[in-house]
Amino acid sequence: MSLFVEQDSDEEVVLNLNNVPDDDAPQPPDSKELEEPPEYPLIPRDEQEEENNLLDQVDPVDISLTLPLKFQQLILEDLIADDSLLILGKGLGMEPIVANLLHTLSAPATIANVTKRSLVILLNASEEDNGKIADELTELSWIDDCNDDTRENQESRRPFVVIRGEQYTPDKRKALYLQGGIMSVTSRIFIVDLLTQIVNPQLITGLAVLHAEKISDTSNESFIAHMYRQKNNWGFIKAFSDTPEPFATGYSPLHKKLKDLRLKRVLLWPRFHIDVTKSLVSKNTKSVTEVKVAMTESMRHIQTGIVACLKKCIEELRRKTPTLAIEYWSIENALDVNFVNSIHRILDPNWHRISYDTKQLVKDIKLLKDLLKCLMSYDAVAFYQMIQIVLEANRPSVDKKSAESPWLMAEESQAVITYGKKRVFDKDEYVLEEQPKWEQLAILLEDIVTERAHDATKTGPVLIMCSNDRVKRTLKTFLHSMRETEQNDGIRSSYSGRRMMMNMIQQYLDSQDLKKTVTSTIKQANTLEGDDESQELHMTRAFARVPISTKRRRTRGGAAVAAVNRLHSAPVAGDDIESKMNRDDVDMELMELDTLDDEEVVAVDDEDGIIALEDSIESGYATEPGRYYEYIDRENQVIVEKYSGKTDDIVLQELMPSFIIMFEPDLAFIRRVEVYQAVHRENPARTYFMYYSDSVEEQHHLTSIRKEKEAFTKLIREKSTLASHFESDEDFNKFHVRKSQVMNTRIAGGAQFRDSNQESQILVDTREFRAPLPGLLHRIGLKVIPLTLTVGDYILTPKVCVERKSIADLIGSFKSGRLYEQCARMSKYYDLPALLIEFDNNQSFSLEPFSETRARPSNIKATHPSSSSKLQEDIQRDLAALVINFPKIRILWSSSPYQTAELILELKAGREEPDLVKAVNAGLSEEKQRDNVLLSNNIVTLLQNIPGITNPDYYNIMRKIKDVNKLMQMSKAELSRILGEDLGDRIFEYLSENYKD
């Protein structure tokens, strides 16, 4: 089956796509007509006729575009026409479309001879996105300058500014917003700027949101979209995504996503869209050469064994979790990228209820998938090292409280281990099996040399693409050290990487020697610390029970017992190979290979055209002693690079290769090559696509194609049945929680009466806007005021301060001791300090995730119940010590951000509004009064340590004498009168001894 051909069943899907009802179709007569927005957003809405007459004075603006393909131009037209969510197929050029759209919508307008610059905000953009969009916008601005020589006014330009971190102060950001242009801002900073009115929503022309698949109802991007629409109903909102799979998960996912982004229309452009197919496929398009490589016999046995173990693990997982298992958990879907994530999404909320064996099965499934990937990519020595690590992690010992992984009990696991060893060393011989793709790659390069001799137009370099850095380094080393061996029937040469493999086995032996040295040193140190062997417990065979002979007798669980015995009786991982390996033999063979290379004069230097991009960039122009540089023609260059997602098309455009070799499948890069070929039709690159036939690599690629097609098919069907949505300004107005709803209007205790119509507010630290809680507080009706707080995260009332900690924050704060400092500051400035421990909405509401996160288990073994229980006790002990040291602290437990929002609303009921000035100034005077604060903290600690003073005495002292300086100046008689004669005498004598000054 071809991996690079069009699907035959796409015509029906295209037909359904074309039959989707248009959102712009006439609505029923009884539908409510909404007020039309103004024709041009830069003109403010006003009831006066004269301002609307300015529309006649708007000058037309010429826009230059850099979209070469027809389907990209059609997408841009649809995006300009209406606010939409664009879902594009992988690798079809999302960034150029976004850049051209931003360039078009940010075009300055000249109204009555006055130029007005638009303000467009780009949200949720990564560093790679910003870099690519900046390059595209720079090119577009150059084209505009070339087309119009009269553009000398700076107002006509569209500056692109990236605002990340704290590099810009609020005043600088406000000035940038007023200047206009295109601003790429992090969501945390922009939501703070909206709430603090640093930027006026009425001045924002529109929002562009990237990676819409990551947006949820609690994300800051959704928060920003709602706030923007509340105060600006004429600006545009555009959203983009090139990952369709997340949109097809759950119930009505497309409807929910559109609601979160305040959009009504969706644009679906899959690879099988008829306009995309017409743009990418033409008569002159050269076919891709598929290179099917057969696996070795050992690789086939290992793959069969791993797949069988993976199937058993999945079946066992379904059996142990019958109420949670879904149909998706099957071996057919195991090669899906999101398979393990789907298991975690279902099991994580119930993680504290499932058994240790079930948790270990989840770990094993992930491990087996990694082993399958490594089998296809890594060399034989590296793969065997992985097997060693797995065996060592599962080896029984006295100090380990964990059992062996279930998959190692299966018979198929022995085949994985056995053939993994045979690929390295078998029968006193260094096998050192090479990856079959390596030789095929060398043959392809030989064919390319022949083809260049017959085609003078192929002057570009050869680009080899692979999956990761490790494979890239291996390929570079192989191409550098490979040597031509005997002829196969006198027709084609054969290439060998024996020298590289011998170097790898030499490095392996060096690492094993270093491991033995370190282990021996640690054992000697432990022996010196103990009393000879009295404190050590060695599990020798002398202490083991003599096994009962099972001859002619059947025993229950005999197969499992035999598997356990094999693991117990097996030597340490690698010992059976190392005992037969001879380092002298390795050195001797390396010397022979060097001699052959010298005789045949086929040694290749590092500079012979085999390069990696970052290697050439990092080296720069600095020359090292003994190394020289020379110019290499483009046609002699062989560049090895890894798939990097967003920057792959930049590599293609800058290098302009004549030959492209995809060493491993990657769906997004295949699409980028198609786009590159369609743009350069006059001289397309020759493309080779390599994969192992009848392998999991082939199935993984086919699965990714199938999943994307199924996702688009589901989205097309949902779009066809998507209900029309109508809204007015009142529909989405925030429900304001008034003062009368959260506070009694009765004036008691002399409290100052406030207007019952005043909006209830909460003070939030600006660093907390990374979390979803501020957005939820805004949606339930509280007025969120961002501030830079020194003490606490949330100020509810003048007396109530809350420090919020997620699971990761709590563990990190305990380790660094930062939590004790934060609690000390809250206890000093607020009467009712609280520590809020907030769990993730998708995690179980128990201490078990705390302990497992703190233990940081490897990807091989799950945390054993006994170890998890001990770690839970440590966390409880830390919390107990925190409460003892700070008695005023109250601990609040929340299962999710939603419950936290409800809890905060309840805590504010019946209480005063927070004091903004007091909250900002709290903790700021510590720098000026550092000496007094340190003295105060030291005396409080000493008061607690005075013999005979209990906690009630301590509270009595702090309640009656609040000023520490006053306590230091009081006489013995005054202390005795206030605290009693006995207690006063003891405190006076203690303070006099230690603080006479």
Automatic annotation (TrEMBL):
ERCC4 domain location: 761-841
Ranges in coiled-coil conformation: none
GO biological-process terms attached to the record: double-strand break repair via homologous recombination; double-strand break repair via single-strand annealing, removal of nonhomologous ends; nucleotide-excision repair involved in interstrand cross-link repair; resolution of meiotic recombination intermediates
Gene Ontology terms: cellular component: nucleotide-excision repair factor 1 complex
Segments for region (Disordered): 16-42
Top-rank taxon: Eukaryota
SMART domains membership: ERCC4
Keywords for this protein: DNA damage, DNA repair, DNA-binding, Endonuclease, Hydrolase, Nuclease, Nucleus
Matches recorded under Pfam families: ERCC4 (PF02732)
Primary site of residence: nucleus
A Gene Ontology molecular function term of the record: single-stranded DNA endodeoxyribonuclease activity
Cellular compartment(s): Nucleus
UniProt cross-references to InterPro entries, sorted A to Z: ERCC4_domain (IPR006166), Restrct_endonuc-II-like (IPR011335), RuvA_2-like (IPR010994), XPF (IPR006167), XPF_nuclease (IPR047520)
Family: Belongs to the XPF family.
NCBIfam families noted in UniProt: rad1 (TIGR00596)
Record protein name field: DNA repair protein RAD1
Originating species: Cyberlindnera fabianii (Yeast)
Organism taxonomic ancestry: Eukaryota, Fungi, Dikarya, Ascomycota, Saccharomycotina
